[in-house]
Amino acid sequence: SITRSPTSTLCKLFTWLYEDSVELTDRLLLVHQADWLASLLLERPSPRGVSDYNNALKLGYDPKIGGYPDWMLSQAWQSALPAQVLAPSTPIGPVSRDVSSRYGIPSDCQVAAGTTDSIAAFLAAGASSPGEAVTSLGSTLAIKVLSEARVDKVESGVYSHKLWGDLWLAGGASNTGGAVLRKFFTDEEVRELTQRIDPNAPTGFGYYPLVKPGERFPVADDELKPKLEPRPADDAAFLQGILEGIADIEARCFALLVEEGCTPVSRVLTCGGGSKNQKWTEMRR
Q1: DSSP state for residue 2 in the 8-state scheme
Q2: How far apart are CA 265 and CA 146, in angstroms?
Q3: Average pLDDT by consecutive 10-residue portion of the chain (285 residues)?
Q4: Pairing of strands 50-52, 91-94
Q5: Cα(89)–Cα(102) distance, rounded to whole angstroms?
């Protein structure tokens, strides 16, 4: 399960309870950012919390069974979990009178259950058919594919969010990405050096670009070391090698998803700062 990841919401709850000694009381309630913001807008927010099944996935909610697993419900801390978990965009209730008058929002405006930022980015990119994928080239590399099958493989960092109907959003996030570029180059240097790159003449360096040891996807390995040697004297060649390495990791991620049963990829859309680099796009094709 994705909850076994040290960055999962459930692991954070355990840290607060068992390492930071946060007292478990009837008033303790775990909410995600979207849940908290929604509660501030509502006329009558639920005292036991309302979430959505995308945000609640890493807390342990299983959208396939429509609830938390039995082992979680038998724990003393289950009272801290959001009691109601809805499908994203489900209306929760009207905005409060104060919010309506303060911000000029119609009084009959409904506050709806949210979703995660990465899923919102996927939907905003325009992907809507099985096999369509979105790569987010930001400080890290995030990949999601709209799939007819649920794919979960914790040892490879793969997990699936429920989307609509019988469709799933399968994918993961690698620690490679733009943060590696920023470690060596400024944005201006990247723009200038990119002009000297020939995507049709690969460097063959075989880099695995990471800022520090540790990878999540396509392999979950806290000890995996960066590979950024040999470093050539030419910074343009070094930059090209890093871009090629990130592109190789992206290709491995897609190959792994299909190997594990995801709907074959038919189209890849790109968002994030890295999408502006046309020569990088050529390397990724």
Answers
A1: G
A2: 9
A3: 82 94 92 96 94 96 95 96 96 96 96 92 91 93 96 91 92 95 96 96 97 94 96 97 98 97 96 89 92
A4: unpaired
A5: 24
